[in-house]
Write a structure and sequence with these properties.
The chain contains eleven helices and eight strands. The chain is an alpha/beta fold and 253 residues long. The structure holds ligand PTJ. Ligand PTJ is lined by residues 30, 32-33, 36-37, 39-40, 43, 77-79, 103-105, 161-163, 180-183, 186, 199-200.
Length: 253
């Protein structure tokens, strides 16, 4: 990438920021999306900016759940679209999921821009926006407006980088929720059935690979993989790692 020398110690992280800034300029990402990324980065630092074992186990259970689902949906916001459009399209193909754009700071213009961006990256049919949408009960943000053929009917929903209210509301509707969230303390992380505590830029390709690998397994084996997973343990493991790493990172301070 021009401007960031290859030897720069924070090159990868700066490249991810660049992707978001470009997404912001192109009307995909909202202002708060840039702030949300900063919060994520702080937690990423604490887990060593690597995919840890708790995230690998969560991704495996998540891929198994998506493959077992009858009506899986990947819910996409501005940040996820800007960071990993190809992985969203690839994962949707690998597990037969629909893709739906669902925004907190909703405008029809942003929904259109995100849909176009995803389609350019290989996504086949992207839902979201327009008229005739259904409403998620007990949810007051713009996120309550969902597609009838997408999130409203879904049995499993994958979402990333979002506030906890919708996760709670989707679970009350009887859906299984898979979340990607670097903050193991967030409401989303705690309310979801499966939380992948990892950066979405690593978690999405991992999920797509896992879906490809597990796609060869039978349903009984997939059920075992999904059934063995415990979200509380994954969150406790993430927090324990952060606690262990802090004194080391603090070094001689
Ligand atoms: O595109 P919109 O309009 O739907 O708006 C999207 C944002 C992100 C602005 C909105 O959902 C929001 O305000 O989210 P929050 O409440 O800031 O929550 C974002 C969560 O995602 C926080 O817990 C962050 O730690 C986490 N996070 C941020 N960046 C990443 C991340 N998790 C994984 N990977 C990241 N790159």
């Amino acid at each position: 990438m021009p401007g960031i020398p290859s030897s720069h110690p924070r090159r990868e992280s700066l490249e991810v920021r660049e992707r978001l800034v470009r997404g912001f300029r192109r009307g995909l990402v909202c202002e708060s999306g840039l702030i949300a990324q900063g919060r994520g980065e702080a937690f990423d630092y604490l887990i060593g900016e690597r995919t840890q074992m708790f995230a690998r186990r969560a991704a495996e259970a998540a891929a198994a759940s998506l493959l077992l689902a009858e009506r899986p949906v990947i819910s996409v916001n501005g940040n996820l679209a800007a960071l990993c459009p190809r992985e969203i399209a690839g994962l949707a193909r690998a597990c037969g999921a629909k893709i739906e754009v669902n925004l907190f700071y909703r405008t029809e213009g942003r929904i259109r821009a995100i849909k176009k961006h995803l389609e350019k990256a290989g996504a086949e049919k992207v839902l979201g926006g327009g008229r005739g949408e259904a409403r998620i009960p007990e949810l007051f943000s713009e996120r309550r407006r969902v597609s009838r053929e997408g999130i409203f009917r879904a049995d499993v929903v994958l979402l990333a980088m979002e506030d906890g209210d919708r996760t709670r509301a989707l679970r009350r509707m009887g859906k299984k929720v898979i979340a990607i969230d670097l903050n193991p303390l967030s409401v989303t992380a705690r309310e979801a059935d499966i939380t992948i505590v990892d950066n979405a830029v690593r978690a999405m390709p991992l999920l797509a690979r896992e879906a490809g690998r597990l796609g060869k397994m039978g349903r009984a084996a997939l059920r075992r993989v999904a059934g063995q997973y415990r979200n509380g343990k994954a969150l406790r493991d993430a927090l324990a790692l952060m606690r262990r790493r802090l004194p080391k990172a603090a070094g001689g301070i």
